[in-house]
Automatic annotation (TrEMBL):
This is NYN domain-containing protein. Pfam families: NYN. Residues 7-165 form the NYN domain. It comes from Paracoccus alkanivorans. Signal peptide: none annotated. PANTHER family: SLR0755 PROTEIN. GO terms for molecular function: RNA nuclease activity.
């Protein structure tokens, strides 16, 4: 499905990829991910999309966002919206679908192959539009989790489905253990 002279771009729905990898029990090594897709074609762009919670002193995703930006990824962020649901629970919403779609459509005339790291069925019309412009589309997600992390209509629309679990040995690293505090006597 990949050809060495393909002009390639990857579009990573950060929250979706994180959830899929977590459901499979591993973390993504983004340096290895970039190297793998650089090897599969001429990697034009590697986009990473995520919403950031503003006003917090420390955001757990900030070090990753900074590393990605420094290491050649086009990082697209926007402030997450915080709200309280009907049960009084604090929720965070940060949908990046429009930003990802606009970037993919802008880049489409200069691409042969787009790789979407997301299982979100809302991207089916984007895949269809890219295909109409002659761009092959691969989708990376998982059907091996319970429930599957990819919408069936997205998987069916893609030219190629890549099972995230099959990439585990190539782009994965074991999840980090949370350090336990030790009391000193």
């Amino acid at each position: 499905m990949f050809y060495k002279d393909d002009r390639l771009a990857i579009f990573i729905d950060g929250a979706n990829l994180y959830a899929a990898a977590k459901s499979l029990g591993f973390d993504i090594d983004y340096k290895l991910l970039r190297q793998e897709f650089d090897r599969r074609g001429k990697l034009m762009r590697a986009y990473y999309y995520t919403a950031l919670i503003e006003g917090e002193e420390y955001s757990p995703i900030r070090p990753l966002v900074d590393w990605l930006h420094y290491n050649g990824f086009c990082v697209v962020t926007k402030p997450a919206k915080e709200y309280t649901d009907s049960l009084g629970r604090r929720k965070v919403k940060g949908n990046m679908d429009i930003e990802l779609t606009v970037n993919a459509m802008e880049l489409a005339p200069r691409l042969d192959h787009a790789v979407l790291f997301s299982g979100d069925g809302d991207f089916r019309p984007l895949i269809e539009a890219l295909q109409r412009r002659g761009v092959r589309v691969s989708v990376v997600s998982t059907i091996r989790s319970q429930p599957p992390m990819i919408a069936d209509e997205l998987r069916r629309q893609a030219d190629n489905f890549i099972e995230l679990d099959a990439l585990r040995d190539i782009i994965g690293r074991p999840p980090r253990e949370t350090p336990q505090t030790q009391d000193e006597d």
